[in-house]
Each structure stands twice: as structure tokens, then as C-alpha cells.
Amino acid sequence: MKPELIQKALDAGLYEYGHHARPLAQKWEPFLEGRPVKRLVVAYDNADYTFASQPLFTEEKALLLSGIRAVQEAFDAEGVEIFLPEKMQGLADGFGYPVRYGKVDVRELGEGDLLHHPETLANIARVQAGQGPMLYAQVAQGGTEKTVCLPLESTVGGFIQAAGMAIEEGTVVAGGWFGRMLTPAQLSQPLYGLANCRIELFPQGFCPVSFAQEGSAHAAAESCGHCTFCREGNYQISRFLKNAVTGHGTEEDIPWLHTLSEAVGEESVCSLGQESVRFLREALVSESKSFDAHIRGKRCDKDVCQAFTDYAVDGSLCVGCDKCRSVCEAGAIEDGPGFIHRIDVFECVKCGKCAAACPEKAIYRVRVGRLIGPTKATKVGRFRTSRKRY
């Protein structure tokens, strides 16, 4: 054991990165008290689906290798093994250590296994070289996604700015499906410790119920199946939420969602199950009105869920330019140039291409059945309404 290498990392106040963040002093305590390290295991959390620090295996390979060797030498580890997700196939093949692709079965880990996230090892290497610890994060908005690396103490807002993005109003979710919604005031808090360091910006139209449904479906699909609560619980949660966003929920679903989310989070063995319900558990409380609207009111209070909305043409704004008809692959838009266009809701597939193509912004989502245009062929300029937009 090399106490000087260990002490340098401890003096820097480094934490283990990931979903189970804790000071290295705490994580290393059993080994500092005499337990031998038989194997250094390098692995991502099973709950991580973004792998923001993937550049460590490409652009900063030497740095990561330095961190692995430093910890192996510091604790006299007998061996090293690397676990990577399937999507990173081949990235560690030249590291000189055994590599396994897939999830880490925590049941296989013994008392002599020291498990570290790649980002932790990279920061240990940085500290050993006299540098400050850094943090990788993904920032996504619409179809744009950027990976940013900043000092460890950087704020959520700092990462958004570094990615060249901004949000004045709307919703920010830190941690993706397994994260949490942040208010504008919370953008000044450090990103470190917020799940998998993914920041998603939704300037408008964010539905927490739909977002939670996507996350539970992902978790159910990714579950290894060993934990009953993770495997069956997330499947059932996904079904309940699917019913909610399609108008088939019942009042009994809400207490079931509370019960299941608590059970999955507390009874699952690895981080996938434990973190899969984080967003849902918080949203059930902070966004209870949205869940009530979907399940009891049979409507999406955020005007997002397709089952509760239609696309419609505002007759007072349409100029009959025909651009919407030219992009509609379903052939759902009626009446030609010079006439106010109308959308056949039975043919419409709700893809939104017509709304994106309309130069007058005359096409938008409305509550199912809401009338904002004429019911028959009408020439442009001959439709008037005092009704407000839904």
C-alpha cells in the first residue's frame, strides 16, 4: 500500500462519482483498516444511460489509465477488471485489462472488490498531477446535444452556458429520466451529485407524467431481471403511466404509483432500480396536479400528451399558402391554396410537421374537439372568431 498516493486523494476531498456519491475516505475505510483489495473494478453505474464521461476512453485515455494504475498501486490490488455498457463496445480493448461488456451484477462483487466509476479514477489522476478535478456533463435541447467538461464545482447554469444554450422560461431536468426538475433559482447549485450529469432543457411543453412514463419504460426494458421489484415494479409503473397519458387511468392508480415507486426504490439491489423511480417519486408530490389532471380529469394540463390534443388550423391566421399540405404525409389537410386549411383529425397522425412548416404559426395543439377554424371550405379572410386560443 502506498499511503502517500492515498493521502493526496483524501486531502483533495474527492468523492466517488455517480449515484452513490460519498467521500473517498468513507468508501476506502474498510481497505484502509486492513482489508486487502483483490480486484479493482472500473464500471459505470447500471442506472447511467448517458455515459457523459465517454471521452475518458477516447480523448483522455492516458489520463484514465493513469488513474487506474494509481489506485491499483496505492492499494496493491491483485487485478483490474473493466465493465462497460454494450454501446461502448471496443472502447477499452486496448487498455491491457480484462473487459466485460454489459451491466455489473453487484451480487458477484466480493468484500475484496474496490469498485470505482471511471470519472472518479480520472479525477484521482488529475489530483496526482497537481490539477483540479473536472466533471463531464451532457446538455440537450431539442435535437441538439453537447458534451461539456468543467471544474467539479461548476453549477447547472454554468454547464448550460458552456454548452452555448440558454433557457429563460420552461423546465430544466437534471439527471434525465432518473433525475429531477429544477426551478430557475436552483440552476445556481452544483451539478455534481445530480444523478448521471445530463441536463435537458424544455423551453415549453414539458409534461412530467409523460416524461416519467418514458423513464419507467426504459428502466423496465433495461432491467437484468434479477430483482423482482425492479423487473416487475417498473413494468407495472410503466403500464399505469401509459394508461394515464392515453386517457385510461383510474383513481386507484395514484396510490399504486406511490406504493410501487417506494418499493422499487427501496428493494432493488443496484442503482438501476434504485434510481429509476427518483423522478417519479418527486413528481408525484411536486406535480400532483398534473397526475390528477391526466388520471382523474382525462386531460393533459401541459397540452403535450397526444391522446388529449389535436392539431388544428386557426382560421383567423391561415393565409392558405398550402405549405402545410405539402409536408403532410398522411394527407390529412383539406382545401387548397386560397382557402383556409382544415385538418381531418381522423387522418392526422399528430407528427407536427404541418405546425413546423406554417409561416404564420396558424397551426397548434388544441384540446380534443376544440374548434378554431371553419367547418366547411372557406376562402382566406372570411373567418372571424373571438375565441381565445386554448
What secondary-structure arrangement, pairings included, does this model have?
Blueprint: H1 3-11, H2 24-27, H3 29-32, E1 39-43, H4 61-74, E2 79-84, E3 99-101, E4 113-116, H5 118-128, E5 134-141, E6 144-151, H6 156-162, E7 171-174, E8 180-182, E9 198-202, H7 208-222, H8 228-245, H9 253-267, H10 271-276, H11 278-286, H12 288-295, E10 309-313, H13 323-327, E11 333-334, E12 342-343, H14 353-357, E13 363-367
Parallel strand pairs: 1-2, 1-4, 2-3, 5-9
Antiparallel strand pairs: 5-6, 7-8, 7-9, 10-13, 11-12
Tell me what the structure shows:
The protein is of the alpha/beta class and 390 residues long. It folds into four domains: 126 residues, 3-Layer(aba) Sandwich (Rossmann fold), CATH 3.40.50; 69 residues, Ubiquitin-like (UB roll), CATH 3.10.20; 74 residues, NADH-ubiquinone oxidoreductase 51kDa subunit, iron-sulphur binding domain (de novo design (two linked rop proteins), Up-down Bundle); 62 residues, Alpha-Beta Plaits, CATH 3.30.70.20. It is 33% helix and 15% strand. Helix 4 packs across helix 5, helix 8 runs antiparallel to helix 9 and helix 9 packs antiparallel against helix 11. It is elongated, with a radius of gyration of 26 Å.
Q: Could you name the key traits of this structure?
A:
four-stranded parallel beta sheet, five-stranded mixed beta sheet, Rossmann fold, alpha/beta, 390 residues, de novo design (two linked rop proteins), Ubiquitin-like (UB roll), single chain
Could you tell me the mean pLDDT?
A: 91
The number of distinct structural domains comes to 4
**Count of DSSP H/I helices:** 14
Q: Describe the strand arrangement of the main beta sheet, using strand numbers.
A: 6-5-9-7-8
Q: Mind telling me the C-alpha Rg?
A: 26 Å
Shape: elongated
The CATH class label of the largest domain is Alpha Beta
Strand content: 15-25%
Main beta sheet strand tally, sense and closure: 5 strands, mixed
The low-confidence runs, each spanning 5 or more residues with pLDDT under 50, are none
- Portion of residues within helices: 25-40%
Instruction: Report the order of strands and helices.
Output: HHHEHEEEHEEHEEEHHHHHHEHEEHE
Rounded to the nearest angstrom, the distance between the terminal CA atoms is 68 Å
